[in-house]
């Protein structure tokens, strides 16, 4: 599937100094997947090295026709993931 980078994402990759190859790593083999009912975006998470530490990296994306449109990428914490799931902000995708 083709991966399209939205303008917001291109800015975030530069601002956060995130390697662009992380997108493919996260989307092709995530540790977990969620759905965000507030934004209607799919969420993929994979722990990767970021600023010298292994951190969960979040990718928010949409699948439109046969294209993955990536909205943003950012580092998070395990506690933030737990909080979003507990609050109902993210719903676990059972496919992964």
Count the domains.
1
What CATH calls the topology is Beta-lactamase Inhibitory Protein, Chain:B, domain 1
Order of SSEs, N→C?
EHHEEEEHE
Strand residue percentage: 35-45%
Q: Quick one: biggest sheet? A: 6 strands, mixed
Supply the CATH architecture: 2-Layer Sandwich
Main attributes of the structure:
3 helices, 96 residues, alpha+beta, 6 strands, 6-stranded mixed beta sheet, 44% strand, globular, Beta-lactamase Inhibitory Protein, Chain:B, domain 1
Give your account of this protein's structure.
With 96 residues, the protein is an alpha+beta fold. It has a single domain (2-92), classed as Beta-lactamase Inhibitory Protein, Chain:B, domain 1 (2-Layer Sandwich). Helices cover 28% and strands 44% of the residues. The protein has three helices and six strands. It has a six-stranded mixed sheet with strand order 1-5-4-3-2-6. The longest helix has 10 residues, at 78-87. The radius of gyration is 13 Å and the shape is globular.
Can you give me a brief rundown of this structure?
This protein has 96 residues and is an alpha+beta fold.
Describe the secondary structure blueprint for this structure.
Layout: E1 2-5, H1 7-15, H2 21-28, E2 32-36, E3 41-50, E4 53-64, E5 67-75, H3 78-87, E6 91-92
Parallel strand pairs: 1-5
Antiparallel strand pairs: 2-3, 2-6, 3-4, 4-5
């Amino acid at each position: 599937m083709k991966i399209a980078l939205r303008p917001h994402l291109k800015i975030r990759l530069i601002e956060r100094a995130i390697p662009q190859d992380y997108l493919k790593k996260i989307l092709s083999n995530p540790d977990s997947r969620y759905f965000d009912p507030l934004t209607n975006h799919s969420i993929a998470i994979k722990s990767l090295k970021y600023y010298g530490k292994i951190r969960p990296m979040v990718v928010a994306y949409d699948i439109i026709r046969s294209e993955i449109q990536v909205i943003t990428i950012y580092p998070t914490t395990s506690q933030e993931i737990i909080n979003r799931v507990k609050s109902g902000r993210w719903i676990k995708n059972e496919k992964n």
